[in-house]
Amino acid sequence: MGQGEAESPPAAGKKGAEEERDDFGYRLFPDRNKKPQSFLARSLFTFHNKCQLMLRLTLETNPYAQLLLEALKQSGCTVFNDRHFSCENCDGCVSGGFDAATSQIVLCQNNIRQQSHMNRVVTHELIHAFDHCRAHVDWFKNVKHLACSEIRAANLSGDCTLMNEIARFKFGLKGHHQTCVRDRAIRSILAVRKVSKETAEKAVDEVFDACFNDLEPFGRIPHSKADAKRAYRDFQNRDRYTANL
Q1: Known catalytic membership, residue 216
Q2: Is 54 buried (19+), middle (13-18) or exposed (0-12) by CB count in 10 A?
Q3: Domain CATH for 65
Q4: Which residues form the signal peptide (predicted)?
């Protein structure tokens, strides 16, 4: 993520760095390059204020996010609101992203307008953060690693619930959840990496079964907030069970 000043040749160095950043999806998050605004300046922008308020509500009340925050803490990766979340303006086609170089979640304040949307985006990106914490994920060079985390995020974040799919005018019966997870994982890869659709599809297909069945830290596919609450309660009780053995 960091940028260095090239002594020579400056033109080639800058072009190479820009192309690499584009390959890794940074073009979608233009505010990543800018200096942070002052508190006073940020407080004048409605999008930023609304984003911060919705984020706080998600972290304090959403069971998906609460479980993931607890799991990250137990894995040695405590998440701090001011350090690990950033509300920024983004390209119109994305709602959020996980910047592995800084371990920071970007929330697209110009594209997230509803609390339910914020809940899903935060959960999706926290799953990436959890994978980053617990495993040696090569986000930038190994498309299979990226595919695995995108499969898990689509599967466990609520992206593919029945109501969300109906809202997208997508209907299906047998195997529809798996189809949704696969399609959204492919779309996510294509959004942040300059690879062909065939490459993205191949990566997803090769790791799909293993990654779809990796349900940590939920232990189940949470199809609703009620499922997520039960998963959170079970997660909190894991240590109690093992301590009594």
Answers
A1: no
A2: buried
A3: 3.30.2010
A4: none
